[in-house]
Amino acid sequence: MIERRNHRFSRQSDASAENPVSRSSQPVAEPEIENEGGNEPDNEEPEEVSGSGSGAKKVIPALVAVVVVLIGVLAYIWMTKQKLVNELNEEKQELTQKMLDLQSDYRDLSSDYDSINAQLDSSREEVNQLIERIQKTEATNRAAIRRYEKELGTLRNIMKSYIVQIDSLNTANKKLKADVASARRDLSESQKKNEELTQTVGDLSDKVAAGSVIKARGIYLEGQRKNGKKTDRARDVVTLATHLSLVENDLAPKGPMMVYVLIFDTEGNLLVNPEQPASMTKDDTEVTVSACREVDYNGAEVDIVLYLKNMGKLSKGVYTVDIQTENYKLGSAELMLR
Question: What's the topology of domain 216-337?
Fold first, then answer.
C-alpha cells in the first residue's frame, strides 16, 4: 500500500517538472490520506471468517462427544434388553423341559381301574395342550409364563394324587385277596365247622351291609355371585353351590360313585341347568336332577362341591337341596335368600 502511494507522488513530480507553468498555476492537490489504521474492508472479512471457523472447531468435538455418549447409552440399553430376553428364553426352555418330563411321567403312569384311567387320559390331554401353548407363547410374555408354571404345579399335584389313589387301591385289593385266601383255607380245613362258619359269615355280611352305607356330613347350600363370592341376596345369585363331605367308612364299597343333588325353589319347583341337563336312573326310570358328579370313593373322607348355574332369575325365599346316590339319600339342607 505504501509503494502505490509513492508511485503516485513520483508521477506528479515528473509532471511538474515537465510543465512548470501548470505546476505553478494549478493548486497542488492534497495527497489522499489512506486509511492508516489498517481497517480496510478487505481486512475485516478474513477476521469474521476466522472467528466462525474457530467457533465451529469448538462445537464439532462437543457434538461428537454427545453422539458417542448416545451410542454408548443405546448400546447399554440393547445389551440389557438382550440379556433379559436371553434369560426369559432360558426360563421358557426350562419350563418346557419340565412339562415334557411331566408328560413322560403321565405316559408311564397306569392303573387297573377304568375310572382312574379315564382321569389320567384327561390329565394327559391337559399336559399336551399346555405344552402347545407354552411353545406358541413368546418368552417375553412373563404373565403367561408364570400362569403356565402354576398350571404345571397343579398337574404335578394331580399326578401325585393319582399315585396315592392307585397305591391305596392296590393295597386294598392285595389285602382283600389275602383275606379271601385265608378264609378259603379256613373253610377247607374246617369242614366240621362249615355250617357254623356259614352262619357267622352271614351275620358278618349283614353287619357289613348295615355298616357299608356311605354317610355325609357338613351339608349346606350357598349362593354365589358371578365372581364366586358367597351371597344371600337373590338378585345377585348366579350359582347355587352344594357342599358336603362323604365320611370315612372302611366298610363302604370302594370305587367310583355318582352323587346327585335336587334343588327346589320357593314354590317346590326343581331347578335345572338347561344348557347342561342332568339325570339319574331310579327304579328303571330316568329322573331329572339339578346337578351330578362322579366321586372316586376309597373309604377316606372326601369333600365335594356340586354347582348349579343358568337357573334364571331367583326370587326371595327358602331353597331346599336333597343329596342322594342311586341307592340311598345322603341328606338335605336349606338356604334363605333375601
Answer: Immunoglobulin-like (2.60.40)
Query: Which pLDDT tens digit goes with each residue over 166-195?
Result: 878 788 888 888 887 887 777 677 666 667
- Write down the domain spans for the chain: 74-187, 216-337
Q: For the chain, list residues with pLDDT below 70.
A: 1-56, 76, 78, 80-88, 139-140, 187, 190-194, 196-197, 199-211
CA angle 164, 165, 166 (to 5 degrees): 95
Distance CA 141, CA 39 (A): 74
pLDDT digits (tens, 9 = 90+) for 71-128: 877 776 767 666 556 666 777 777 778 878 877 877 777 777 777 778 878 888 888 8
Averaged pLDDT score across all residues of the chain:
76
